[in-house]
Amino acid sequence: MKVAVVGTGKLGTKVTEALVEGGHSVLVIDKNEEVLDKLSSQLDVMTVNENGKEIRVLRRLDIHTYDFLLACTNSDEKNIVIASFAKSLGCSKVIARVRDPEHMNQFDFIKDTMRIDYIVNPDLSITIEIYKYLVEKSTLSTGIFTSGKVSLLEFRASRIPDLIDKPLTEFRKVLPDMLAVAISRNGQIIVPHGDTVINDDDSIYVIGEKMPILELSKKVHFKNKLAPLQKVMIIGGGKTGFYLADKLSEFGTSVKIIERNEERCRYLSTHLNDVMVLHGDATDLTLLTEENLDEMNAFITATGYDEENLLLALVAKQHGVEDVIAKISRRSYTELIERMGVDMALNPLNIVASNILRFIQGSKRIISSQLIQGQAEIVEIIVSRTMDIMNKPLKDLKLPYGIIVAAIHRGTTAIIPNGDTVIKEDDKVIILCLLSEIPTLEKLLRTKRVLFSKI
User: Domain 1-120 adopts which CATH fold?
Assistant: First the structure.
């Protein structure tokens, strides 16, 4: 497919990288020549140093020949205009990033009026994942995800004592014909391998045939309801804090936001209902204590600074808060997060990039996809003859640590694979992939490359 990306910020670069790895033809448009030169030296893309909002530029680039255009500059209004212009000029599908909370309640009107096919909002996307985690306690409602003849179940490892302190090589001795595809440990989703040892406080994601999974669910899930989500403290009143406070307040939760910018506090106070907005510096531990940190059911750090988010998350954990969630943008902090014991760490960039890629792929390759704790996704694909994963034993694919083939539907048969399993054409394959490994997954699923026509 031919895809045009307008804007070379973090999101534009992330999506471009994944699209290139997937074998798509990508054109990047930006006014910053230096950034474009750097991007073209790293990736096989065509770059144009122009203003993507100008109709003459879009016409000269033959935008009507493109399958998709993504507008992700730093301006909502510019993104809306660019996407609308491209659509009017004949681009098949257009996507716009829109972040301003004031647009939140009028997305449908914007889409209909401006003829935009898909609107993405990173802050709203991360809010939805946090909300699911807090309110449902799992991104998989009831803990079970079912596709065809197989199901995925999430449960605490402590519910099956025979698994504790055992390497994954021993897993099938305890649960035959099932596969552990992911572990939630100290706020991080990890893809386990043979030498991974299961800990008592891990949550395990197990895949298997539907009926055995349903039977296992009866054994490992408590029947009593979880404690209600009564009190939540949010640090940072930016877009994520705003969206989350609004949703939790609507749910009936008592919400406190601590924000250091006085003008932003005034905005929050006038635009949020039944939310306590406090003007102050959350790094002042006296303030947190005075505002009853110890009594909170959940604590979310959503400032614009990763270091501050991690520090305050650690403080909340030390005060015994049950659910502590941190918004983190830097991938390099992954190992640090695991050691700190934060319950959930989310990267909005990874989440929204995944959403965009799944929209672009539509139903051509991806049958379905679902996020797990905002850090990994389960995707079900149809294997075509052009994919490199065909006709090779899984052990020879050299999959990175963040990707695992979880199950295969072949005709009416469900297969829980091992290293010797071979994927064949027309198989429906369920794959679990960390969002940080999306470009690698796209490379695995790539099809024949479509070359650009000369401009």
Answer: Rossmann fold (3.40.50)
Q: How far is CA 31 from CA 44, 67, 76, in A?
A: 19, 23, 17
Give the DSSP letter of residue 393. B
* Beta-strand pair 46-49/68-71: unpaired
Numbers of helices and strands, H then E, in the chain = 15, 22
Per-domain boundaries in the chain: 1-120, 231-346
Q: How far apart are CA 82 and CA 52, in angstroms?
A: 7
Residue that the structure tokens 């807090």 belong to: 134
* Rounded CA separation 174/198 (Å): 13
pLDDT in tens, 221-244: 765 445 578 899 999 999 999 999
Top CATH class, 231-346: alpha beta
Q: Are 9 and 73 in contact (CB under 8 A)?
A: yes
- What are phi and psi for residue 254, nearest 5 degrees? -80, 115
Contact 157, 204 (CB under 8 A): yes
Give the span between the Cα atoms of 177 and 208, in whole angstroms: 7
Residue corresponding to tokens 């230096």: 34
Check residue 220 and give its pLDDT: 85
List C-alpha distances in Å: 267 to 181, 238, 288, 291, 305: 44, 10, 22, 21, 21
Q: What is the DSSP string of 126-188?
A: HHHHHHIIIIISSSSGGGEEEETTEEEEEEEGGGSGGGTT-BGGGHHHHSTT-EEEEEEETTE
Sign of CA dihedral 73, 369, 206, 222: positive
Do 344 and 325 meet the contact criterion of CB atoms below 8 Å apart?
Answer: yes
Q: DSSP secondary-structure letter at 226?
A: P
Q: Do β-strands 344-346 and 275-279 pair in parallel, antiparallel, or remain unpaired?
A: unpaired
* Cα angle for residues 26, 32, 36 (degrees, 5° grid): 35
Per-residue pLDDT reduced to its tens digit, 404-449: 999 999 988 889 998 899 999 889 899 999 988 888 888 887 765 4
Q: Which two tokens stand for residue 191?
A: 């893809």
Q: Of 319 and 401, which is predicted with more confidence?
A: 319
Residue with tokens 């290293």: 419
Q: Which of 87, 34, 157, 44 is nearest to 450 (CA)?
A: 44
109 CB-near residues (< 8 Å, 6+ apart): none
Query: pTM surpassing 0.85?
Result: no
Q: Which residues contact 332 (CB under 8 A, 6 or more apart)?
A: none
Using CA atoms, how far apart are residues 345 and 356, in angstroms rounded to an integer? 21
